[in-house]
Sequence to fold (376 residues):
Amino acid sequence: MLPGSTNVPNRVMSAMLAPIINHRGDDFRVLYKAIVEKTQQVFQTNGEIILLTTSGTGAVEASVINIIKKGDKVIIPVNGEFGTRLADLIDSWGGQAIRIKAPFGENPPFEKIEEAADQNKDVKAIYAVYNETSTGTTLRYMDRIGKLCSRNGAFFIADAVSILGGDELPVDKWNIDICVTASQKALAAPPGVSPMSISSRAKKHMQSNPPPTQYLNLKRYFKYYEENFETPFTPALSLFYAFNEALDMVLEEGIDERIKRHKICAEAFYAGLYTMGLTPFAKPDAQSNVVIAVNYLPGMEDKKFRGLLSEQFKVLVAGGFGDLKGKVFRVGSMGEVNRYHVMRTLSSIASAINILGLKANPEATSVALEKMKPLQ
Fold:
């Protein structure tokens, strides 16, 4: 129950047993074209799709070095570890990150972003970490940022690494120029593939201003796909097979149904944990449906609690990191997550709390089960 890598369905794992093929041959071209078309459906976009053989961080970095030049102003909400890292990356590449900060667990008011855009008419882009994995918070005004960017002529780039496939994200409708995600999160595939969607105007900009780099130079990916349905460098073939199968499962379930399932599971987690006496770290208007960050009760020692869950109940959750280390634990509610995962995790947490000498409300699982009824 980590916030990535997540559980991977058996049919997705089995897909990796397919034979290794020539990545400059017709078999690969058929596979690659199919993956691109399915990814467009999942992203809800008509834009270009690029598949990088990297972690999500590699794709986020590609979005920066292919758009941002020295001196470019970039507005970015910062309310967690990954927003901080992204702002630092923009600065290190020569851009000027205008940080719109909020306390961890909260989202910056949209009005502050709007104000910064009005005060910086020459802003090149607005970047947003849609789901801040470190704090269990989700920006609930991505559509408004898209409208703001459209009005001001700025690029809109979304880091959706830990949320795409688990919550609403219509890329074209929200005017997102670059959307980045990763295979090992809500899409429930093995780690190592990071898809990006790119709008026509972002593509045009990249082709006119390629970065001084090789592997993450997206202009090369456009060229190879348009000419031969290939990648410029050797792809991770087995991971491509797995990602293709994972996309099939997403589309078979249906995007809307998948998002609904994630929302119901999140509601059950929050209700059960609250009844147990635990409180979410994120404020109510910022709570994520895919990463549930939970404050520790007095007397709950991080390593001991998570060790109990892992060793005695075979349930693995993540701790906090940075300033939140030892203060919160995080439950990944994404990908395959369903009634079984929610109920087993909650019952294990309650048992671990009782073993630690604290008392968990025994009604917690019943409350959660009631929330899960729509999935039964």
The first helix runs from residue 10 to 15. The first strand starts at residue 48 and ends at 52. The chain has a mean pLDDT of 96. The radius of gyration is 21 Å.
